[in-house]
Specification:
Helix content is 24%, strand content 30%. Bound molecules: S-adenosylmethionine.
């Protein structure tokens, strides 16, 4: 199967890591799109990092928009054409919606309707997109997948796509006890709940009603300042979190001290059998966080750059050892 996915700009390194971890082969990528193949069909649940995903029907050499449409129509096999329902067409070139000429649009619509589907300009049915990315030598015709998205997340919350990427980086397993000490809206735990788990632990110093809204199975919630103490939980083997960045929310001390403090004060929560962590940090504090954790018991395994609403950040992944 071949797919093109569009995702939040700047998440390419993390997206590629996650896709390759799921047996995908990357054909091409840029800072906000990736063309890839998979041995098996993917479900919407495996594509939650993306804003839009297209199942690819045809790939041809890129020409002008109208020249590309002509080539795509020539190469379009019957098997990929819908037999029923309604559809409309879109064209997205170099990062924005772009018009096809009326003649090209009609040619494409006729080709897609030749097995019984009906064109409708209103939408509501399938969408077939002609997509050309700047600097890619090819263009694609793809059917947009329905990712079943609900509305936007809470204000200040991570987007569901980024939260899902962070959860993926933790290599979820069904026996995980997952802890987010700075959970805010709970977006990370909500994303993690897409996979099986044993228990989810929410904590945020703010007394908000976010955790009550989460409605997740086996969720325990606390409102504790983790610089001062730890929630009364044990056996956490995964920590996935997005601590304050010290930009919008002051942390009141050098970032390395802040990091050491919360890591040490939550030691009692962590499994003596070892575990792993994924921490989102702004790029300015990335090295302070890595140095602080490395001085303690954490082995840093990798750090992948990300942009969060245009702000440079990194997803830092590491592990703590089993206690002997
Ligand atoms: C960057 S936000 C996390 C946003 C979250 N990932 C989301 O998607 O909503 C950091 C959170 O840490 C909480 N926080 C700040 N200092 C804290 C502390 N000392 N102990 C526990 N929570 C704290 C803040 O209330 C805030 O909700």
């Amino acid at each position: 199967m071949k797919y093109l996915a569009m995702f939040p700009a700047g998440a390419d390194r993390v997206v590629i890591q996650v896709l390759e971890g799921n047996n995908a082969t990357i054909v091409r990528s840029d800072e906000s799109s990736v063309l890839f193949t998979t041995p098996k069909e993917l479900s919407a649940d495996q594509l939650l990092f993306a804003n839009n995903v297209f199942e690819i029907l045809v790939v041809t050499k890129r020409k002008s928009i109208d020249g590309s449409v002509e080539k795509l129509v020539q190469a379009l096999g019957d098997n990929s054409i819908p037999r029923s329902g309604t559809f409309r067409t879109m064209c997205h070139f170099d990062g924005r919606l772009a018009p096809m000429s009326p003649a090209s649009r009609r040619t494409l619509e006729r080709a897609l309707a030749r097995r019984g589907a009906k064109f409708t300009p209103r939408g509501g049915g399938s969408e077939f997109w002609v997509i050309g990315r700047r600097d890619w030598p090819d263009v694609v015709l793809g059917r947009r997948m329905d990712l079943g998205r609900k509305g936007k997340g809470a204000k200040g919350a991570l987007s569901p796509q980024i939260a899902w990427l962070l959860a993926s980086l933790s290599s979820p397993t069904p026996s995980d006890v997952v802890f987010d000490p700075f959970a805010g809206s709970g977006a990370i735990l909500e994303a993690r709940a897409r996979w099986k788990y044993r228990e989810l632990v929410y904590n945020d110093a703010e007394h908000n009603d976010a955790s009550a809204k989460l409605r997740l199975r086996n969720l325990r919630s606390f409102h504790i300042d983790v610089l001062a103490g730890a929630p009364p939980v044990k056996n956490v083997n995964k920590i996935i979190t997005d601590p304050p960045w010290g930009e919008y929310e002051e942390v009141g001390m050098p970032y390395a001290d802040f990091t050491s403090k919360w890591w040490q004060s939550t030691a009692s929560c962590r499994s003596p059998g070892g575990g792993s962590l994924v921490v989102l940090v702004n790029r300015t504090n990335e090295s302070a966080l890595i140095e602080a954790l490395s001085r303690l018991d954490v082995e840093i395994e990798r750090s992948a750059p990300l942009l969060i609403n245009g702000h440079p950040a990194a997803a830092v992944c590491g592990s703590w050892p089993a206690r002997s």
